[in-house]
Q: What sequence folds into this?
């Protein structure tokens, strides 16, 4: 069964009947009903394989075009700037072999993970405060709006001037970029708690703190995780850009430095790594988000 | 059944008045004061089942909030066991129309919600005791075996059963029910009415039950309290005697039932018309009433 956490709806899961009690408990995706006869199983297997091929068709075509285009279509002068796929993969293998890629990857991951972590902790805490105290919200909101609408990369020179080109400035800009999606979603999550649930909890005589801990926080968790997922994506984007401007290691540095040194296959190897990393991070965060939103709604709803 | 020389009343409403300030709006820049309840006095003895009917906006839910301790009256007192109600407490439980289950908790975890932490009597339940209680009360409402289901996996009737179990689990003396069956289909509703009478008979709770349905009020209540249109006043209390309701016989078609039903209907009829002419709609929990600002009945679906 397909269970990749992409946002495309798998028509088969949607058409499947409501999950049976046994499978539904632990959030197991409803499997399409598979009749037990061999022929039917073969047919459904073939259908699934067909869907798999169709689903990866665009990717395969793109990779083919990348491989064959530069060799057969492009003039020799362009081929230098757009090497075919196997050359890029060779460069990637060489970078892995001599350990360079791992070094750059580790540098980038350390920075984005620290910035991201700081942002999540700070933004969730501030978001809870702002959502709980309306006067604080009125006071802070205009300023937050200004900062939120200032592109993080526009502030990159400021961060570099004030904090230098070392680690601190990069971690800070990642934290800045990741901060706002988490903050806004935390506020939204707390604000949209069903008032009826609050009434129900109040009628049980819960104190403010218990209300917060037992009703408001659990109810806001899925929305908070949506913000965290968005923050994860943007923290990588911003980091790569920051590393391209001034750094001595990291994937962004690898890309720019390879370009400057005319190691074009290495440059593409760096780009490929960035996109794979982005995919992986998004995959993980979507899985986490889904885990925490299991209770939200039944079949057919999608985490937005 | 009315209070007299017998035992002291379980619940006593003494001349309750409740007003809301309507926020200023464009059409109504001054704001205004809305009197939801006016001079309500009512005594209930322990173990009694009383139903409360009244047109939209007559303050039924406000009265329930006062009993639950979610709001305070402007004048008068609400007494439970002779003590004035100052806030929510575990001697009273509320069952809401929209179930109000916590969607991230399983049925069992919902039922044990009220058992967590230290109760007002200083009692603490261990995790195991809570699970046992949850199972016991889910059994009582006929949901044994559904402990691990999440609310979105349950039907409306089952959700309301879980909500009732949650309210019963911490063993309150008084059950306050705000149109609990209004969102259910007719068949499920009838089934749950029978169940509720059975639960009432086994547990001996004092029940105050708000409803829109005259049939429901007459079928369930030992007494039916009829509220007038806004401002809500107690128009009349009708004693109901329709014989044994626990049997298999169709109580709703016997002569006594029809007679009582007609009596309540006549009392309510004028009030409903008056409320409609005035365009009254439900008073929101925050005290605003949509009709007070716009004079348009929103006809909130019940």
A:
């Amino acid at each position: 069964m397909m269970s990749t956490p992409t946002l495309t709806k798998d028509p088969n899961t949607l058409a499947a009947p409501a999950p049976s009690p046994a499978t539904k408990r632990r959030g197991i995706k409803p499997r399409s009903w598979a009749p037990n006869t061999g022929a039917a199983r073969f047919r459904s297997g073939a259908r699934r394989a067909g869907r798999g091929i169709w689903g990866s068709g665009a990717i395969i075509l793109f990779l083919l075009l990348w491989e064959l285009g530069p060799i057969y279509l492009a003039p020799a002068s362009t081929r230098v700037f757009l090497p075919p796929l196997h050359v890029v993969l060779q460069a990637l293998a060489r970078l892995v072999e001599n350990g360079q890629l791992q070094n750059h990857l580790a540098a980038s991951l350390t920075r984005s993970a620290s910035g991201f972590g700081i942002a999540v902790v700070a933004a969730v805490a501030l978001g809870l405060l702002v959502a709980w105290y309306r006067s604080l919200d009125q006071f802070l909101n205009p300023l937050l709006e200004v900062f939120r609408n200032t592109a993080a990369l526009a502030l990159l020179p400021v961060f570099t001037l004030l904090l230098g080109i070392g680690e601190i400035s990069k971690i800070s800009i990642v934290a800045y970029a990741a901060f706002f999606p988490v903050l806004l979603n935390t506020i939204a999550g707390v604000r949209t708690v069903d008032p009826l649930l609050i009434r129900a909890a109040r009628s049980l005589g819960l104190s403010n703190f218990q209300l917060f801990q037992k009703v408001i926080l659990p109810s806001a968790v899925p929305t908070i995780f949506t913000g965290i997922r968005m923050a994860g994506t943007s923290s990588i984007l911003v980091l790569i850009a920051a590393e391209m401007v001034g750094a001595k290691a990291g994937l962004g540095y690898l890309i720019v430095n390879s370009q400057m040194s005319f190691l074009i296959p290495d440059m593409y190897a760096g780009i490929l790594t960035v996109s794979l990393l982005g995919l992986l991070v998004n995959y993980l965060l979507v899985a986490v988000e889904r885990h925490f939103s299991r209770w939200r709604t039944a079949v057919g709803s999608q985490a937005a | 059944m009315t209070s007299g020389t017998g035992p002291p009343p379980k619940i006593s409403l003494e001349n309750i008045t409740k007003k809301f300030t309507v926020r200023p709006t464009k059409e109504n820049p001054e704001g205004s004061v809305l009197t939801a309840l006016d001079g309500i006095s009512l005594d209930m003895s322990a173990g009694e089942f009383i139903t409360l009917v009244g047109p939209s906006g007559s303050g039924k839910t406000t009265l329930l909030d006062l009993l639950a301790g979610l709001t305070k009256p402007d004048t008068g007192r609400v007494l439970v066991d002779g003590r004035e109600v100052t806030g929510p407490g575990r001697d009273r439980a509320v069952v809401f129309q929209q179930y109000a289950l916590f969607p991230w908790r399983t049925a069992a975890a919902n039922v044990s919600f009220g058992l967590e932490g230290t109760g007002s009597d200083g009692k603490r339940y261990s995790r195991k005791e809570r699970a046992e209680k949850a199972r016991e009360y889910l059994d009582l409402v006929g949901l044994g075996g559904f402990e691990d289901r999440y609310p979105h996996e349950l039907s409306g009737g089952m959700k309301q059963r879980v909500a009732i179990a949650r309210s019963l689990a911490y063993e309150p003396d008084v059950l306050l029910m705000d149109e609990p069956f209004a969102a259910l289909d007719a068949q499920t509703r009838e089934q749950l009415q029978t169940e509720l009478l059975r639960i009432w008979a086994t547990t001996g709770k004092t029940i105050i039950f708000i409803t829109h349905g005259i049939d429901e009020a007459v079928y369930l209540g030992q007494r039916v309290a009829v509220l007038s249109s806004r401002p809500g006043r107690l128009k009349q209390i009708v004693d109901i005697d329709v014989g044994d309701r626990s049997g298999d016989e169709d109580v709703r078609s016997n002569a006594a039932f029809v007679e009582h039903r007609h009596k309540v209907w006549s009392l309510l009829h004028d009030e409903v018309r008056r409320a409609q002419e005035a365009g009254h709609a439900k008073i929101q929990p925050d005290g605003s009433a949509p009709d007070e600002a716009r004079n348009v009945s929103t006809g909130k679906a019940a």
Observations:
- The longest strand of chain B covers residues 32-44.
- Residues 293-302 of chain B have pLDDT under 50 and may be disordered.
